[in-house]
């Protein structure tokens, strides 16, 4: 139930944040501004990692416990149940802090004018934001009433104008999230497989949380977060589609580079090289499709359908996250039944799972060609709304 309301409520902020920023920014800096909004996700990732490190280290010192191989029951002390609860509780604070500002924020002028058909209110809202006095243009009001702006999401006109771009946005986000979330969720299995963190049997439950959080936070600090800001820095130079193609391509290359010679990387002397290459897949995910799949849907669709199409794209992405989270949790299990985790059937192993993810990234690169390039164009040019009134 918690996950449902998280997706239904806070998940709705994906299309809202992207759309609000796209409609308030100018065409020369729009991509960088939307990218900067999304880059705050990296700040959240680091904050979550630091919270997990602090909480787990405090509990590990206060409530020492034997390792799993010494005592299976006592290796998870009763106090361990509070660790995840405290970590999750910290996540409520940003939501509470943003609630007030969300309530005070007006609708964007484009929505108010094009959807609500209230030119006067749109002008007043823009006057507040820009802190200048604007006057209503009567001709604009007539243009906003043009019937060519009224086609719906399920109309033939929408399919003709925006069907393929929507397919491109949904498919690339779906495929990206399969790879991105599965990478995140079985990081601990990969790090254990190459010996970067100790085997679970040699730690107690709280210490294992600390070790995993430390490894994941280090990856985020050195690769994930810089990737976000590289997108912000270069998106108006390279363009959205070029960055997305590059990101998918490099993710494919590095996935194959660590997957095919996987046995080579499990040797102790090669672990550092593995970590570097694995980190680069996260870097190019964020200096690539993880950022651009968020940015592009907020730019290429009509104002009255912009947040809806972005929401559809994001929801499709989360469907991919489900596939990645559950599918690859099972797929990454060893093929030898005697080596699988308790309660899991045999899978295809980490090596074959990584190869599969590489193929998924390559397919994502191909579907990127369905997406138009928004760089340097106004929202009206991209959506075809500039044709109205001519």
TrEMBL record:
Signal peptide positions on this chain: none
InterPro entries, alphabetized: MFS_dom (IPR020846), MFS_sugar_transport-like (IPR005828), MFS_trans_sf (IPR036259)
GO cellular component: membrane
Transmembrane segments: 31-59, 82-101, 217-235, 241-260, 272-291, 311-332, 353-371
GO biological process, one term: phosphate ion transport
GO-annotated molecular function: symporter activity
Membrane topology of this protein: Multi-pass membrane protein
The organism's place on the tree of life at top rank: Eukaryota
Compartments it resides in: Membrane
Subcellular location, principal: membrane
Keyword Nuclease: no
Domain Major facilitator superfamily (MFS) profile intervals: 1-376
UniProt keywords, alphabetically: Membrane, Phosphate transport, Symport, Transmembrane, Transmembrane helix, Transport
PANTHER family to which the protein is assigned, alphabetical: SOLUTE CARRIER FAMILY 22 MEMBER (PTHR24064)
Similarity annotation: Belongs to the major facilitator superfamily. Phosphate:H(+) symporter (TC 2.A.1.9) family.
Protein name: Major facilitator superfamily (MFS) profile domain-containing protein
